[in-house]
Description:
The chain is of the alpha/beta class. The protein has helices spanning 31-36, 38-44, 79-91, 110-115, 177-193, 224-227, 233-246, 260-267, 300-314, 332-335, 342-354, 384-397, 399-409, 446-451, 456-466, 470-474, and strands spanning 11-15, 48-51, 55-56, 68-72, 95-100, 129-130, 151-154, 159-162, 197-200, 250-254, 277-279, 288-289, 291-295, 321-322, 359-363, 476-480, 487-494, 497-504, 510-511, 523-528, 537-538, 543-549. Residues 22-24, 26, 28, 30 line the site of calcium ion.
Amino acid sequence: MARDAWYKDMNFYQIWIRSFKDGNGDGIGDLMGVYEKLDYIKSLGMDGIWFSPIYASPNEDFGYDISDYYSIHPDYGTMDDFDKVLQAAHAKGLKIIMDLVINHTSDKHPWFIESCKGKDNPYHDYYIWRPSRKKNKRPNNWDSLFEGKAWEYNTQTGEYYLHLFSKGQPDLNHANPKVREEIKKIMRFWLDKGVDGFREDVITFISKPDTFVNDYKMPAVKGLFEYSFGPHLLEYLTEYRQVALEYDCFLLGETPIMAPNRALSLIAEGEGQVLDMMFHFQHMQADCFMTDFIQRPFRLKKMKRAFSTWQNALEGKAWNTLYLENHDHSRIISRYGDEFYHTESGKMLAAMYLLQKGTAFVYQGQEIGMTNVYLENIEDYRDIQLKNAFEIGRKLIGRVKALEYARKSSRGSARTPVHWNNERNAGFTEGTPWFDVNPNYAKINIADQMQNTNSLWHFYRKLLAYRKKPVIRYGTYTEMNPKDRKIYMYERKYENTSVLVICSFSKLSRKYKLPSSYHEGSSEIVFNNYETVSHDKLSPYQVLVIEKTTSV
Ligand code: NOJ
Ligand code: CA
């Protein structure tokens, strides 16, 4: 798609439906809840919604284990409910993006059930089966990301199947053309309904190597670099891209372990482009190593380097996504900000990422600064990934430290019910909520923040509106003082407008140098999270956004 593709200045709201809003009082978020809140989403300044999976699923991984791609999970409503939401959203000018989870299915998917019946079954080759390497030995030494080793034995076939995630998430065999046809059929089904695009789950994992040899390079997560960006990835993605081109939709890949050079081979605009955008992870690793679980002290320089590298590498060639939260990460104020300076750091983080170049994503509850939840037991977080990480961590670093890491990094913190107001269950449900409500909802909730024009919610709304300016959509990006360990400063420029974004990541007040060109009278402060402003000092977590227009 071209420079002016419709999605480029858009703001998307991500819904993880189970915790968004319960419409029928059974304690579980659903499509009727979404329907009720479409005006809310619109009023925040959104142009679209990305739905994490809402399909039929045994919910071992809350929807990322699909048992029927053509039906809505009964917890969330019916296909009619979906059609109603889609139609109403479109009528309000909101696009709808679906999650496309095609690296794996659920083990309860009929294809897998058939596949297990025997080598001659027509669905056998829909999955990746291999015989034992030696007697009773797995085909190779790969680890799964969610549950033990990556191969599971099946007595019916006498073979092992591959699961990069949990045992209940067997990997599809994209090398089989029949599987690729099924995927195209699924895409067309939803596109024919009128959805506007897909977020493609772990899409860089779909092509496995032709032979499965042992990985001796990696001490843990064995196999990761063998199946990531596999040999036939481009081929498969080109096929799926053809379907997208039949419709005016976009494809957004979730791409773990991705650096910009490689990214360009997928997202560079023009011939050969297979994805419109991608969610990479580099800026989410400023306080951890490899995975969120292995924590390090937050390093601003690492985060700045990640943002700047992507902004610069994609300039004029490809399009960025901008995000700080989603259903897979704990809450950003609790990570990169400061719960003590809740509103201040929340506003600073919002401006810090939303004023960069790219399509913006805001995760449910982020707009009011929902924070991490601290639960007693690992099981309380209801997260298969966390359970696995904790088990590995416990052996390596001991129970106490592993528990601390788990509490800080759990995806569970992003999955507690949204705080709509300060009433019972935070206004999420009339019934019993399926998952713990964060006890701080009386302090942090949507109703209060909508009423208070100084709130984080209003700050998000203003920023989302400001993003429509040409300087934010088209402007260049230049980072200033990249070596500063507490301040992130960058400038956006387009024609005769410049915008300077200054963010303090310090708990203390902090000296800074305002570039002299911004001292002039034509400069205007367009965002400030404090009442005051000083030309040489920033308050804790202060953000200043200064716009300047020069006559041409
Ligand atoms: C990435 C998804 O965002 C995550 O929630 C899921 O667990 C894995 N992929 C496996 O599908
Ligand atoms: Ca419900």
